[in-house]
């Protein structure tokens, strides 16, 4: 059983500018290290549970209640959070922060959903759907590419607000 040098992986992510490093993927679980999610604005609906451990820095996990109200769970460095399946969530943490994430491998046919809401009136804006079978395919970045690449998707049908493209995305550093 191999040891995983988490410090080395965090250093690798910092040096390369990459945002994720998959630790393992087997028939039961997948695990990865994520760096900085300060730009996140979507809410991910994952059909699996998620275990998030704050390796370095703090996590503000934005989530939506069954009634649709946005709340924030604070996960300080060294703490762990268990998140049940299908809770709309948006992990946000600084560029120099790192999370260890463990999930159940998706059952064939399960779909991950990514939802965006208007920053002005909280009206639903857009949904992207992906089959997540390997984080090396970077489904989050693909969902963001589709969303930020479409002004129509970013325009609120209720109030007309257009969600801006974050500078990090426009500079292609995400």
From TrEMBL:
Source domain of life: Bacteria
Gene3D superfamilies registered for this protein in UniProt: Jelly Rolls
Keywords on record: Dioxygenase, Iron, Metal-binding, Oxidoreductase, Pyridine nucleotide biosynthesis
CDD domains: cupin_HAO
InterPro entries named among the record's database cross-references: 3hydroanth_dOase, RmlC-like_jellyroll, RmlC_Cupin_sf
SUPFAM superfamilies listed in its UniProt record: RmlC-like cupins
Cofactor needs: Fe(2+)
A Pfam family reported for this protein in Swiss-Prot or TrEMBL: 3-HAO
Function (record text): Catalyzes the oxidative ring opening of 3-hydroxyanthranilate to 2-amino-3-carboxymuconate semialdehyde, which spontaneously cyclizes to quinolinate.
Designated name of the protein: 3-hydroxybutyryl-CoA dehydratase
Source organism per UniProt: Mesopusillimonas faecipullorum
Record lineage: Bacteria, Pseudomonadati, Pseudomonadota, Betaproteobacteria, Burkholderiales
């Amino acid at each position: 059983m191999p040891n995983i040098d988490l410090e080395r992986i965090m250093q690798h992510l910092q040096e390369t500018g990459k945002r994720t490093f998959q630790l393992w993927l087997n028939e039961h679980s997948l695990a990865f290290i994520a760096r900085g999610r300060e730009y996140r604005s979507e809410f991910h609906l994952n059909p699996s549970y998620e275990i998030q451990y704050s390796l370095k820095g703090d996590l503000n996990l934005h989530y939506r209640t069954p009634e649709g109200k946005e709340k924030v769970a604070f996960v300080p460095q060294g703490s762990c959070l268990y998140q049940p399946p299908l809770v709309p969530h948006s992990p946000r943490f600084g560029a120099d922060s790192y999370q260890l994430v463990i999930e159940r491998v998706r059952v064939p046919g399960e779909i991950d959903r990514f939802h965006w809401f208007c920053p002005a009136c909280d009206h639903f804006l857009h949904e992207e759907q992906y089959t997540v079978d390997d984080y090396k395919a970077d489904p989050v970045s693909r969902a963001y590419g589709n969303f930020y690449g479409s002004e129509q998707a970013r325009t609120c049908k209720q109030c007309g607000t257009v969600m801006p493209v974050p500078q990090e995305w426009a500079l292609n550093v995400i």
